[in-house]
């Protein structure tokens, strides 16, 4: 038996790889991982660890109805303003939105007893009231991201009178599927015991879960690819910004985390119509405002089968669902996001914010 | 190929000279000459410094013409002047080891023969290795660079495996293929164990590293606080480490040592009427040890399950590759081979992760860790109960009450706002 692999080409490949690794030393010494959250903004409201940011409008006449971004409790919203040439937030502002953003902050041991009600009926509702009062308007637009999208859906169902339009991005709604590992494992994990052990669930624990979803890609190949791209300083800087964001994981308030996993991942109460917050049933049919549901086709964290059904459960007659051929994070930072996703969201909001 | 060999040979020569200069500088600065001729000492340090530059430049030359990488520049920036660099060098472990060796020349010679001198040499030369420069990087950069190195090591191991595989496929006749597949699958499995699995503990520390460290720390604490366990601890500890890394069956031995120790010491103690208030503490300690053993068994099962999948995948991957070679459609370069293999491994792991079996295993492992942490925390809290240190069980109720008070304040604030709004509405009328 003979093999005809190319010895010279392989040796050259190996040598080049080694040179790249050497070169990476200097690059990594001088690389920058700053440049996120640079879009101009100011804190306009604070409560406990929460900060509400208002972005400086980038057009003369922004939309009359402001938009509030509700991000997930996992990771930080820096991903939406990762760098100036890949900023979903900047694109929304350039399109004329008047933007607010909630930053949840970093929970500490004393936040163990925060519940989903504290987040949704407490913080989000207080922030909404603050913005409505500030603008002297009856309704605003809600834009929820991932878990923040689930919060936004619940909030809208309970407070439809305060929400003019609802935008959800990579948002899990129907948890009855095994397409995603988190959805698969979430059904077997004893979260109550986790909260008993930790009180506040460490952010590293969450990171471990996400890395496990694609171990070779996320723990090995990603870094091998970086060595290959080491000549491209912009690519390296981008990588470092993303890396910094990925591992900047706030801890999770124990009781809220437990409620979320048990009520949704394990029991799928939301789409069954059995979920109640502070004793009030959350009926998704009460969402009657226009809904824009943005989904990433290659999302390995929130599978499409968890996001797509939103339109089937809400009472609204104006539901737009769009699936983009990108990943969970790509929906915000990819070239396609800049070219297609943000402009679509802007146009959709503009038409409905008059 | 010849050019590459020249680079390596030149690099080796430069390394050799750098160490020679280092030794000369050591003799003149650290030895008797320093007392009589300080200038000679300075000259020798400068020679060592210049040889360092020469070595670094050798690395640069390997990068080829026009490359921007200048490790010497970076090294120089970090080190400042030659004498300071020398002093730093003198302060580090390499010097200390060297000094220790020099105290007893006979022993030094014996150590040299045993290979310790090689370690000293290697550590000395590593100071010049640009790949050791991660300590000059920022925190995130350092972490990323170290991950890049690990990833490279894995890739390099697979490169060697690929070359062996191809070499054997060329040499072996057709009927030997089955045997070859067995051998190569075994080699591949070893690579996965040695290079891929070590990546997991670092990343998946909540499943492997943290419980292990916690177990170790807790045992150390127990060892410090509770004398009866002192004799059993070293044996238990080493058995636990053995079973963590290689043989899960060793846990049975841990259990046995634990049981013996219990019967001989704590068991007797607990029966004694003088134990009194210590009884609860000892019982808590027992609960902690039980939960620790259960956790380690669960972790061994977890690691073992991934290892089994890796072994199965190893055989399949090699078989697939042999088939590709037979069809003359095998990857022609290592890069292509790596792509083929890594995609294959990831698919296998992903497939396994999605099974109900693995979901149960990861849930069991996590749960056992949580149980252990709960019991270990309780034990530590009992130890701290008599000290002024505020423990979690004491402050937990405060967290709960503060949260409840915040909710009440929020509800009252909303009522006040509603009443004010009603009042404004009435006044406007």
Shape of chain A: globular
As laid out across the biggest beta sheet of chain A, the strand order is 1-2-4-3-5-6-11-12
Mean pLDDT of chain B: 67
Number of strands of chain A: 12
The major β-sheet of chain B equals: none
Which two protein chains have the largest interface (Cβ within 8 Å of the partner's Cβ), and how many residues from each? A-B, 74 and 91 residues
Termini separation of chain B comes to 95 Å
Q: Percent helix among the residues of chain A?
A: 40-55%
The CATH topology of chain A, please?
Rossmann fold
Structural class of chain A: alpha/beta
Key words describing this protein structure:
heterodimer, A: 354 residues, alpha/beta, Rossmann fold, eight-stranded mixed sheet, two-stranded antiparallel ribbon, 15 helices, 12 strands, 46% helix, globular, B: 429 residues, mainly alpha
Structure description:
- The complex is a heterodimer of chains A (354) and B (429).
- With 354 residues, chain A is an alpha/beta fold.
- Chain A has one domain (41-352): Rossmann fold.
- Chain A has helices at residues 7-30, 88-94, 116-135, 147-158, 181-186, 191-198, 203-213, 215-228, 233-246, 254-266, 269-272, 304-307, 310-313, 330-333, 335-352; strands at residues 41-47, 50-55, 67-70, 99-103, 140-145, 163-169, 200-201, 252-253, 276-277, 280-281, 291-296, 319-324.
- Chain A has an eight-stranded mixed beta sheet with strand order 1-2-4-3-5-6-11-12, with helices on both faces. A two-stranded antiparallel ribbon of chain A has the order 7-8.
- Chain A is globular, with a radius of gyration of 22 Å.
- The relative contact order of chain A is 0.15.
- Chain B has 429 residues and is mainly alpha-helical.
- Chain B has three domains: 2-136; 209-384, no CATH class; 392-429.
- The N and C termini of chain B lie far apart (95 Å).
- The model of chain B is unreliable at 197-212 and 222-230 (pLDDT under 50).
- The radius of gyration of chain B is 31 Å and the shape is extended.
- Classes of the chains: A alpha/beta (354), B mainly alpha (429).
- At the A-B interface, α1, α3, α5, α6 and α7 of A face α9, α11, α16, α17 and α18 of B.
